[in-house]
Structures
1.
Amino acid sequence: MNAPNGLFLTGTDTDVGKTVAAAWLLPRMKGNYFKPVQAGLSGETDSQVVQRLSGLSSDRFFPGIYDLQRPMSPHESARLEGVEIDMTRFVLPESDRPLLVEGAGGLMVPLNRDALIIDLMVQLALPVVLVSRTALGTINHTLLSLEALRARGLEVLGVILNGPIHEANRRAIATYGHVRILAEIPHLEPLTHESLRSIDHLDFPLLESMGK
């Protein structure tokens, strides 16, 4: 398989650790970062968190298409701001490096009356990395997400697990999901660029070729 020109990083749910996974993955793929929809602009944005934790310069980060104020589902945050999210505006920026695109929430998060995050993923046509929790319930959430991705014809590169190491859940996801576990990012205290950099990948053969 030829190396893709990027990937779409999504999650099984909100707050599963997509942004932490993006900060871990971005330097390893020697990539640029793009979050097309950001909902919730108080404090650090996801792009700012990824930049701080990855240690990369600001020129590696593309501006989003829709930056919404409220930390809500994008469709509702947009509605409250009088904004209609137009799917035709979602175009990948020209990038001289592999592009990491981070989604908002999980696969079925609405963007407008007709489109979900998974529709944006189909539109952008990048292979997918799925971020999952390690805690109770993750097997069900992860297998459902994998089934939805494959039903839409999306290529799944693998799963990144985020949270306390749980061998049984890791094994179940790999076995029943027929998927690679690309990395396990444990709970890090403190969570810094240095501590995140120390986490190695388990099975990510595309990393090296993407970063060349």
2.
Amino acid sequence: MMPKRSNCPISNVLDLVGDKWSLLILRDLTFFGKCTYSELQTSDEKMATNILSNRLERLELDGLISKEPDKRDKRRKVYRLTQAGLDMMPIMLEMMIWSSTYEPVTNTHPEVVERAKNDRENLIKDLLAMMKDREV
């Protein structure tokens, strides 16, 4: 874990996920159902393999994700959000809302933004249920 720069709560979050890539990994695990290294490599942002490896390791050390062997193929690792990672979901939803307001040309589905604004609790429940379904 990185040493804290200050006791500011915003600085604390930035120490964990304030780089260019960490939130994108959390996004892919949360919203796109990606859970393996090779799936995470297919993101539109084309993250370099060394960066992906480094960020996955940091997110695991910081307690936002966990890594375990795939039940179907023990050679492959599966990444999952920890409770701390799951608790980033409202922050990411707020970022989506903000982005859709100030940069409306995004690939976010308008119904997701609408639910994030008006039915957040049920949207989060649905997202958590989808993640749980993927674990089976």
3.
Amino acid sequence: MKINNKFKLQIKSVPDNVAFARVTAAAFASQLDFTLNELEEIKVALSEAVTNSIVHGYENNDNNYIELAVSLTEAGMEMCVEDNGKGIEDISQAMEPAYSTDPERMGLGFVFMQSFMDNFKVESEKNKGVKVVMFKKVSSVDGKPEH
């Protein structure tokens, strides 16, 4: 797929940057013909990925960084969120609804990401970090009716 536009961003692992990442991605996505609902889904999925890096990957240690890479194609938008945190020991377990390493969390981050994106992949190596790659199609491109 041909990339029409792309940005890479490195943000500090602080909670204030979750909102910054979601607004930045939504503004970038507005270059395509996404519906308002699709833009909301993009913002939620990206927020969950960045929050997971902060809370689980870095355990709220703000001396770390999260890499965002976002690409636009004719068909949609790919978002890659990557950290160098503690990683995920068992990805399939982490994907289960209500599973969380933090008892104060609902454990629905991956569930939201997977349900809101058209393609979703998680790669991880213990003590080396996590890479989440998500793709959202523009509904008008694949013939679906716009909402």
4.
Amino acid sequence: MQRTSKAPERRGRKARKTRDTLAQAALELVLDRGLRKVTVEEIAQAADVDRRTFSRYFPSKEAAVLDVVRGDGDRINEALRARPAAEPPLTAYRRAVLDWLGDPEAEPWHLRPRVFDLLRLAEDEPTLFAAFHHIRVDAQEESVAVLAARLGVDPRQDLRPAVVVAAGAGALLAAQTAWVRGDRPAALPELVVLAFDALSAELPEPRRHGAAPHSTT
């Protein structure tokens, strides 16, 4: 009985190892040679498996390459669930992102080898960018569900959770874009703080049409 109970656990570890090996092979090959010059067969060969095995784990080479960042949305949402219930939703989302960035065990992007290069490549490769967008959308849908549960509302009827997530995720995306277009791989936390500060800043009162600028003199 003990031997039988351990068999699924061993199979799970083996499957996880195979998936990780494929993902790492895909990441290294694509970053070294470019997305369009790497085939699924080459990724499978580098991982010492066949093409059929690759297809059991990933629908495309883009999905395999991005597997290294797929869990980050889950980590942010886990941090969001752990935020105090009394925090306003946008504050909770902001602090969840910063909790993730400040947790070395979670390996946020700026601490993980080659993720900077990967996200920079995604800026130039449409299919890779589209696949990364789908990963973000999945994570954001879960964030909406988490905030709706915190507020005790139905997100299909109450727009607040979706609006907060759209704003917070937009701030994170703006920081990410500035990060990968810059030249400081360690600067992501600083840029995230700046992006959320910009989001939270009080906007100037709109000027009425035809009104002259207010003067203090």
